[in-house]
């Protein structure tokens, strides 16, 4: 079991209030992603849950039990660190076995569990190697293996993919999602990469300056962002924000339209724009445009749409997909 | 071609210093070797003649010879043990965040700056002296008979003094090694349920292996030749109780005026040092890979 509840959890470092006060409910078996820009307190929040930092106020409950004062090892959580934090002088086998050895499990049971974990993670051939003899992806898997064997009530991932190259990141993303489906254990995953958040999460927690901006499923956040911050953070390329006359005509301080909700045309449309930069990605083309009376706008269109610097194109926003925000940056309901 | 030229040039440019170092090493060694086969006593400098292995025989059969080798080993091993164990302990303490950390660290390191004869004299006259030493005061306070350190435990006293001098060095090297230990590894071990003792055994000690090797290798080189501390405290006595090989050579050369015999002792010391070096590299050298 692995439900985690945070009640008015706060963290202060000296003068700096890193986390003012957070309430959060994480259900058993959920894949929760904490996402936010660097310095938003997402890693701190994870470390508070892990017990590596002491809370300044509030309560942390795991399965209804107050663990606020419990030592990290007693919380039944396993963590995968950004640097993997493998023990360099131990073989892969010993690395994975370490938590079991510390739990004073007998050797036969340890061997069985290590073999099983190695099989799940495709590490069987590497059990006798040292971490320094492994590739980045393999090290990552060892770190996950060390977490799995403990059979924790929840896994904590602290930006586990940020040290890998782009191709490997994609593969590991799938592997971690796959692992979640196999184990059905609660996972909390910290990242600054909204693509990781969107692709892996059951529930995304968007953090900004130590506050929760919004909690919801990836599509909820995409379709109904609660405020300007979430609207700008979720989605790539980011949402276009339009102030001024156009927004006022929609009874809003700011209007938001995602690049994929702009219809492009060569000859007619609502807005007239000049192409500044065209990014041809193959499947998609991103156009960065200068639109008359609106300003800078990014549009996403079919990969076949050929455009060059200086071309004039016409755009029509899909007004059913328009987001409206008031002067406090909060979303207005339609 | 370019690399080839640079290599040749590099070798040419390095040649003078390499040559100088070689000469610096070879000439004294050759001279010592030469003198060790000569009958050369400073009391009769005119009568210098070939002696064969006589000098070696005399040095070997000297009743102090085996004792001095044993004493040398005791000093080296004793000091190494105290400095490595003590150094790790102090380094662990200094690694904790404390008030006035910078000043405390400088204070801990300061014994290393004190010259060996000065340090030995301070220990002799202010700490270990049976009449007005600090240890004697403590013994009196506890109603015990003060210990006459240099008479009762001469070799042990020397080990303590030398260890006191080398402890800062070991602490410094081990502290830097300790600070380079990855924080996430410690946290991972903490989450894995390792208590302080287990973290020390499975994480900290293996991490320190390399630094300990450096400490052992460097200290051994210097500890084989401990001399000043013996000269100003026990003068090798009582009897030969605190005479090590270096001190025995000094005695033969400058108290016995026997240059030939001392040279033979010097050659024996060089051979001994090399044997120790081979064993040492075998035993701990692989930590340096």
UniProtKB/TrEMBL annotation, chain A:
Family per record: Belongs to the ABC transporter superfamily.
SMART domains attached to this UniProt entry: AAA
Membrane topology: Peripheral membrane protein
Domain ABC transporter: 4-234
Keyword Nucleotide-binding: yes
Organism whose genome encodes this protein: Neorhizobium turbinariae
CDD domains: ABC_MalK_N (cd03301)
Gene3D superfamilies: 2.40.50.100, Nucleic acid-binding proteins, P-loop containing nucleotide triphosphate hydrolases
A matching Pfam family: TOBE_2
Keywords on record: ATP-binding, Cell inner membrane, Cell membrane, Membrane, Nucleotide-binding, Transport
Name of this protein: ABC transporter ATP-binding protein
From TrEMBL, chain B:
InterPro entries, per database record: MetI-like, MetI-like_sf
Alphabetically ordered keywords of this record: Cell membrane, Membrane, Transmembrane, Transmembrane helix, Transport
Domain ABC transmembrane type-1 intervals: 69-280
Bilayer topology annotation: Multi-pass membrane protein
KW Membrane (keyword) present: yes
Classification via Pfam families: BPD_transp_1
Subcellular location(s) of the protein: Cell membrane
Entry keyword Transport: yes
Domain of life: Bacteria
Positions of transmembrane segments: 12-37, 69-94, 106-123, 155-179, 200-228, 248-281
Predominant place of localization: membrane
Family: Belongs to the binding-protein-dependent transport system permease family.
Entry-linked PANTHER family: BLR7065 PROTEIN, INTEGRAL MEMBRANE SUGAR TRANSPORT PROTEIN
Protein name (Swiss-Prot/TrEMBL): Sugar ABC transporter permease
Lineage, top ranks: Bacteria, Pseudomonadati, Pseudomonadota, Alphaproteobacteria, Hyphomicrobiales
């Amino acid at each position: 079991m692995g439900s985690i509840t945070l009640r008015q959890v706060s963290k202060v470092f000296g003068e700096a209030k890193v986390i003012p006060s957070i309430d959060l409910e994480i259900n058993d078996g959920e894949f929760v992603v904490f996402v936010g820009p660097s310095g938003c307190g997402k890693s701190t929040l994870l470390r508070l849950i892990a017990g590596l930092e002491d809370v300044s106020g509030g309560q942390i409950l795991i399965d209804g039990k107050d663990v606020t004062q419990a030592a990290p090892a007693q919380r039944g959580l396993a963590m995968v660190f950004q640097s993997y934090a493998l023990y360099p002088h131990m073989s892969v086998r010993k690395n994975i076995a370490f938590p079991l050895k510390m739990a004073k499990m007998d050797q036969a049971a340890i061997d069985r569990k290590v073999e099983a974990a190695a099989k799940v993670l495709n590490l069987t051939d590497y059990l006798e190697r040292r971490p320094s003899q492994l590739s980045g992806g393999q090290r990552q898997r060892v770190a996950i293996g060390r977490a799995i064997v403990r059979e924790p009530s929840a896994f904590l991932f602290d930006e586990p993919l940020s040290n890998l190259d782009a191709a490997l990141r994609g593969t590991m993303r799938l592997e971690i999602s796959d692992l979640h489906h196999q184990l059905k254990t609660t996972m909390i995953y910290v990242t600054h990469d909204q693509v990781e958040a969107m692709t892996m999460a059951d529930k995304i927690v968007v953090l900004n300056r130590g506050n929760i901006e919004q909690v919801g499923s990836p599509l909820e956040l995409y379709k109904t962002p609660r405020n300007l911050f979430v609207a700008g953070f979720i989605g790539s390329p980011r949402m276009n924000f339009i102030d001024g006359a156009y927004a006022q005509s929609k009874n809003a301080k700011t209007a938001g339209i995602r690049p994929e909700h702009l219809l492009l045309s060569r000859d007619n449309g609502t807005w007239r724009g000049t192409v500044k930069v065209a990014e041809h990605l193959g499947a998609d083309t991103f156009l960065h445009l200068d639109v008359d009376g609106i300003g800078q706008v990014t549009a996403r269109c079919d990969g076949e749409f050929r455009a060059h610097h200086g071309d004039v194109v016409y755009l029509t926003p899909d007004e059913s997909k328009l987001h409206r925000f008031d002067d406090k940056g909060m979303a207005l309901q339609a | 071609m370019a690399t080839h030229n640079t290599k040749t040039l590099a070798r040419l440019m390095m040649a003078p210093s390499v040559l100088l170092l070689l000469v610096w090493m070879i000439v004294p060694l050759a001279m010592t070797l030469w003198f060790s086969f000569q009958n050369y006593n400073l009391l009769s400098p005119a009568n210098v003649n070939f002696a064969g292995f006589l000098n070696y025989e005399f040095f070997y059969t000297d009743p102090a010879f085996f004792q001095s080798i044993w004493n040398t080993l005791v000093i080296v091993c004793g000091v190494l043990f105290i400095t490595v164990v003590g150094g790790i302990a102090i380094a662990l303490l200094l690694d904790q965040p404390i008030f006035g950390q910078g000043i405390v660290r400088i204070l801990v390191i300061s014994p290393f700056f004190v010259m060996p004869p000065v340090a030995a004299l301070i220990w002799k006259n202010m700490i270990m002296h049976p009449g007005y030493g600090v240890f004697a005061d403590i013994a009196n306070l506890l109603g015990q008979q003060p210990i006459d350190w240099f008479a009762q435990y001469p070799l042990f006293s020397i080990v303590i003094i030398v260890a006191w001098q080398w402890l800062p060095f070991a602490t410094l090297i081990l502290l830097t090694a300790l600070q380079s230990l990855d924080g996430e590894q410690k946290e991972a071990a903490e989450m894995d349920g390792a208590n302080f003792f287990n973290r020390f055994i499975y994480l900290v000690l293996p991490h320190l292996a390399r630094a300990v090797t450096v400490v052992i290798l460097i200290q051994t080189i210097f500890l084989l030749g401990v001399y000043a501390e013996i000269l100003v405290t026990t003068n090798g006595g009582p009897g030969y109780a605190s005479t090590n090989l270096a001190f025995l050579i000094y005695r033969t050369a400058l108290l016995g005026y026997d240059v030939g015999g001392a040279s033979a002792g010097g050659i024996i010391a060089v051979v001994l040092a090399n044997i120790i070096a081979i064993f040492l590299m075998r035993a701990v050298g692989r930590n340096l890979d």
